[in-house]
Each structure stands twice: as structure tokens, then as C-alpha cells.
Design goal:
- This protein is of the alpha/beta class.
- The protein has two domains: 179 residues, Spore Coat Polysaccharide Biosynthesis Protein SpsA, Chain A, CATH 3.90.550.10; 41 residues, no CATH class.
- 41% of the residues lie in helices and 21% in strands.
- The chain has ten helices and eight strands.
- It has an eight-stranded mixed sheet, with helices on both faces.
């Protein structure tokens, strides 16, 4: 029996995402051009709710890995059958025909990229910060914007650094910017949840995220960043 191959493997790390995962998977299937050419891999880090069963019921392939988003995404990438990896948060919704936009960018010579971003919130403050996602600079990148990358390039960079319990997206994208100038900001927008801001306070959370960025720029390592996160964000 032949093994199915896919253009895009969508990798979604999850931990207790029962309230969001069905909506995300349905959206992916309803808004891609060719469902047969995408693979949806849900990588669970030890959920205690119904996340896994819901994802399976929606037709995703569910696998388990050690907890930690970097480890979960690396495990998904190792299992992926697609030539393009698309890393997506469980509470982030890609635009219509996202698969076409990604494959076209790869075929035009871009090795990696992301979409612009907006929040599911009317907050002008969050809209202001989301506006910067259109700028092609490592300072304006984040995991909520989603990330597509050729599997070949991902493997050559040795994937995400699993020492990072937070900030793993930014650390990887920093290495990616050092490695290639072929990073594409797609004009469409993903819509990501503002729930974390609503829980912690918008100004407070953005301030602490900014401090974490600065700490990383000044040489703080993964454990120092994590300690700051645990102390001030939780």
C-alpha cells in the first residue's frame, strides 16, 4: 500500500485545548483549497480534558509527546509527511485558502514565512501591536502569526531549541533570520485569540512580553526568561 504524501503538514501543539481545537480543525478543512494535500497533526503534551478525542473526531492525527511546545513541535515535524511544515497555535485561525498562499510563496523561492496577524478583540491597543506584524523584522515576529517553513530548512536548523519553555518561537525565528533572507510576510491575516491578554491584563502582559524580548536581546538564557515569566505572568 502506498504512503500518502502531502504538500503541507499542519502541526498544532496542544495542552487542554478542548474549547478551541474543534473550531480550528474545522476551519482548516473548510478554508483550504485541497484538503487531500494537507495533513493535520495535533501533538498533545499531556491534556487532561477531551482535547485528543475531539481532535480525532474532527479527523486530525493525534500523537503524544513530552510536554513543552518546542518538544511537541519538533516531534510533529519528525512525523510530518509534508514537504512544508506549518506551525499553528490551537487558538489561531488562518485566512481563507491559506494553503495556496503558503505553497505559492515556497514555489516563488521563499524558504519560510508567516501571515500578518490580528486579534479577536476590538482593543485598539492590541490592534496597534498587531499592525507591526506586517514588518519583515525579527523584532516583529511571534508564534501567534503562525510559521511555515520547508521541512528541509527546518531540519537543517535542528528544529526548535527544547531548552526554551517559553520564547521558543522567537528563538527559532531569530536563527532562521540569521540563516536566510528568504522570509516572506504574507499579506493575509491570521486571527488569534486575545484570551491571554484578557486574563492577565492587556498593558501588563504586553509590558512583560517586551521585557522578555529585551532580556533575550541582552543575553539572558532560557531558564532566566522562564523564571521571569513564571514570576510576572504565571
Amino acid at each position: 500500500m502506498s504512503i500518502a504524501t502531502f504538500d503541507i503538514s499542519i502541526i498544532i501543539p496542544v495542552l487542554n485545548e478542548a474549547n478551541t481545537i474543534a473550531t480550528t480543525i474545522r476551519h482548516l478543512k473548510e478554508n483550504c483549497l485541497t484538503e487531500q494535500l494537507i495533513e493535520i497533526l495535533v501533538v498533545d503534551g499531556g491534556s487532561t480534558d477531551a482535547t485528543n478525542q475531539i481532535a480525532e473526531d474532527q479527523g486530525a492525527r493525534v500523537v503524544s509527546s513530552p510536554r513543552g511546545r518546542a518538544a511537541q513541535m519538533n516531534y510533529g515535524a519528525m512525523l510530518a509527511k509534508g514537504s512544508i511544515l506549518y506551525f499553528l497555535h490551537a487558538d489561531t485561525i488562518p485566512p481563507k485558502h491559506f494553503d495556496k498562499s503558503i505553497t505559492q510563496a515556497i514555489h516563488r523561492g521563499y524558504q519560510a514565512g508567516c501571515f500578518q496577524m490580528k486579534f479577536d478583540s476590538n482593543s485598539r491597543f492590541l490592534s496597534f501591536f498587531a499592525w507591526f506584524s506586517r514588518i519583515n523584522s525579527r523584532l516583529c515576529r511571534g508564534g501567534d502569526q503562525s510559521l511555515f517553513i520547508s521541512k528541509k530548512l527546518f531540519d537543517s536548523l535542528n528544529g526548535f531549541n527544547e531548552d526554551y519553555r517559553i520564547y521558543e518561537d522567537n528563538e527559532f525565528i531569530g536563527r532562521l533570520y540569521d540563516h536566510t533572507t528568504k522570509f516572506k510576510i504574507l499579506p493575509q491575516q491570521v486571527k488569534t485569540s486575545a484570551r491571554r491578554y484578557e486574563e492577565c491584563g492587556t498593558l501588563k502582559l504586553q509590558y512583560h512580553y517586551g521585557i522578555i524580548h529585551l532580556k533575550s536581546r541582552f543575553g539572558n538564557g532560557p531558564e532566566q526568561l522562564y523564571r521571569y515569566y513564571r514570576k510576572h505572568i504565571g
